[in-house]
Amino acid sequence: MINTLKQWKEQYALKLPVVEDDNEHDKEILITYYLAYLALLEPKELKKESISNVQTILDYILEQTIQAFNSANLFCGSYNVCEFLEGLAKMVVNDAFLIYIISREGIYELFIEKFLLFNAICESTTLNTMICSSLYTIIWSISFQPEYSMKLKSTDKLISTVEQRVKNESNDEYALEMKRVAKGILFNLDCLQMDAQATAVDPNGDDNRIKVMISYAHRDITFCEKIVAKLQKYFQGDIWVDFNKLSVSHEDDWEDIAKAISQCDVILMIVTENYCSSKSCRREVIHADKRNKRMIPIYQGNDY
Q1: What is the 8-class DSSP label of residue 296?
Q2: Per the count of CB atoms within 10 A, which of 30, 65, 106, 256 is most buried?
Q3: Of the candidates 80, 70, 54, 171, which has an alpha carbon nearest to the alpha carbon of residue 134?
Q4: Distance between CA 109 and CA 112 in Å, rounded?
């Protein structure tokens, strides 16, 4: 699909406007193209894209985002700010593009300002909830960056806001996702300590057996299940993987996953495109690295 979109772009390139043009119809076409491009861009394609090409798109989307935030109805043309933020949230998985975005004058401050604002009014409308959720994703990505993590940590209002989100008991889909991301932010900022929590001891466990924890992206669960089946057949140690050890496996099991990492001897990482683009997996690697755990990567895919 992304190649088809590019072919269309090349065919009609001369008809598309530059950013400064006043033709509103052509601007709408350009915005639609850029949003579709971001929606279709997968990690594999993202790695192959030229920096200059993506930066052109980011520049344009950022301008529309600012205009949408400044409008009374949160729209810029036919699109609301949430649609621009969703595109940006997808791009900040890539560190190079994230740094490019937040290095632009006033953009980091804009994200923090709107993050605090929409947290306060998050539940008032569905649109506000969606905006808040996208901003959480962006702030989580920023919190992985050492040069910005200290700035986030020193913003007391932001920390208290995120801590309140962790305590939210709503079962709404967006609320649960924001709670999961909030935990990730606090962990990256060293405001959420896992090792101090009590750890349940398996009465049937054998302390002399090698303990292996498997770290994988949930989108690769089928491949992971095959790996686990093979290990169980030939390996005599203890294998910890969420879908076997937890009653219901989902991405909000961070406390249990962190304990498993702390207690294991070896971590097997199933490294795929999905793994490399997952902030949850990145958090697991950071947690393991801080504890000097031995990590063995299993590469899957033509690019690994």
Answers
A1: E
A2: 65
A3: 80
A4: 5
